Amino acid sequence: MRSITKVLRLLIVLAMLPIAAHAATEEFKLDNGLRIIVQEDHRSPVVVSQVWYRAGSIDEVNGKTGVAHVLEHMMFKGTKAVPAGQFSRLIAAAGGRENAFTSRDYTAYYQQLEKSKLPLSFKLEADRMANLQLTKEEFSKEIKVVMEERRWRTDDKPQALVAEQYQSATFQAHPYGRPVVGWMNDLENMTVEDAREWYQNWYAPNNAVLVVVGDVNAKDVYKLAKQYFGPIKPHKLPERKPQVEPQQVGERRIVVKAPAQLPYILMGYHVPALQDADKDWEPYALEILSGVLNGNSSARLSQNLVRQQQIAVDVDAGYDLVQRGQTSLFELDGTPSEGKTVNDLQTALLEEIDKIKNAGVTEEELQRVKAQVIASDVYQRDSMFYQAMQIGQLETIGFSWRNLKDYPAKLQAVTPEQVQAVAKKYLVQDALTIATLDPQPIDQNDNKPKGKPHVH
Fold first, then answer.
1. Of 21, 61, 92, 393, which one's alpha carbon is 20 to 30 angstroms from that of 180?
2. 3-state secondary structure the chain
3. Residues annotated as part of the active site
C-alpha cells in the first residue's frame, strides 16, 4: 500500500507540471488559411520552426505510392531565388540544422536555429511552399536516391521486409497497407509530372500548419509569418474520400523468407485510434495496456519472456494513439532465444495476453505504468523539438494542441477493469495478423547492402 501511495504522489506532481514550465501557447490564422501555433520557451536563445502539410502516404493512389516522400526530397531541389542545394547551405551557414520527414499522415519540414535567424527560416519555407521548381533533370537524379533509400531501409533489412508484408496483409483496403517509401515498381515508373501534381494538390497554406517553439514572442512570430507566408494564395484541395478497412473476419498469417541470422515474429490486432478526445476512453486504456506489457524493465513481457522463461532475446509491444486514418494496431514483436522457435514465442505472447484477459492487472501495476508513461511524456516535453512535434502531429491529424494538457488526466482515469475490457474486446484471434521471418542462409560473397542511406 505504501508503494501505491508513493506512485500516486508522483502522478499528482507530474500532472501539476505545466507543459515544460513555459508560457502559454498562442494560435493564429492568416487570411490564406495557414494556421500558426507558437509556444514560448525562454530557457535558451533557440527556436524550432516546423511546417507541417496534411499530406502523407494515406492520400496517395495505387500506381503512385511513394510520391509524398519523393516530393519531400524534391523540396530541397530549389526555386528561382534559391537554387538546388542552397537551402541546406544557407541554414548551415546560419549555424542551424534542418531536415524533413514523411509519414502515412503528414509531411513536415523543420529548422532549429538561433532565435534571430527565424526570418531566414520563414523566408526559405514560404519560397518553396509557392515557388518550387520541379525539373525533369533534378527529378531523374533524385528518384534514384529514393530507390536507393528503399533498398537501404527495406530491401536490405529482413525485419523491415516482414513489417512491410505484414502491413500490407493487415490493411487490405485502407491506404495504411501501402509503404510510405513506395513500392519499387511505382518508383521506377514515377515521373516529374506525378511529383508536380502532388505539389500542386497539397502544398498550399490552407493545408499547412506552422509550429514555432522557442525564445520568441508569439505576436512577433505572427507578424513575421504574415510578412512571408501571407502573400501566398490558397487553393481548393482535392476531396478526401472516406477510407475504411473492412472488419477482419479471421486470423491472417504470412511467412517472409529472406537471408538473416535470426527468426522474427510480428503480430498485431485491429484496434481503434482516438477520435473524440473528450469522450473516448478505450484508446487510453490500450495505451496503458501497452505499458503493462512493455512499458519498462519490470513490465510483463521483459520480466516473463526475456528474463524468467528466456524464450526471447528481445520483445516489444506498441500502440499508436493518434492516427489520421482513424484506425490503429496493437502490436507485439520479438526475436526467439537460441533453441526456441517463432511458434514458441508466439504461444508465449498469446499466453501473456490471455493472462490479462482472464485475471486483469493489479492496481499497483497500473499505477506504476501510469507514472512511467506520464513521466516519459513530461521529460520529453523538456525538448523544444519534441514540444513542436507533439503540437504539429496533433494539429495535422485533426486534434488540437489544447488536448495535450488533458493527456495525464486521461491516463490517470484508466481503471484496471478498463484495461482488461479492451484486451477482451479487441485482442481476439479473428482480428489478428501474424508475420514471421524464416531466415535463409546468408551468402557471404554477396553480403553487402544494396542500398545507400540518404541526407533528406
1. 92
2. CHHHHHHHHHHHHHHHCCHHHCCCEEEEECCCCCEEEEEECCCCCEEEEEEEECCCHHHCCCCCCCHHHHHHHHCCCEECCCECCHHHHHHHHCCCEEEEEECCCCEEEEEEEEHHHHHHHHHHHHHHHHHECCCHHHHHHHHHHHHHHHHHHHHCCHHHHHHHHHHHHHCCCCHHHCCCCCCHHHHHCCCHHHHHHHHHHHCCHHHEEEEEEECCCHHHHHHHHHHHHCCCCCCCCCCCCCCCCCCCCCCEEEEEEEECCCCEEEEEEEECCCCCCCCCCHHHHHHHHHHHHHCCCCCHHHHHHHHHCCCEEEEEEEECCCCCCCCEEEEEEEEECCCCCHHHHHHHHHHHHHHHHHHCCCHHHHHHHHHHHHHHHHHHCCCHHHHHHHHHHHHHHCCCHHHHHHHHHHHHCCCHHHHHHHHHHHCCHHHEEEEEEEEECCCHHHCCCCCCCCCC
3. 72
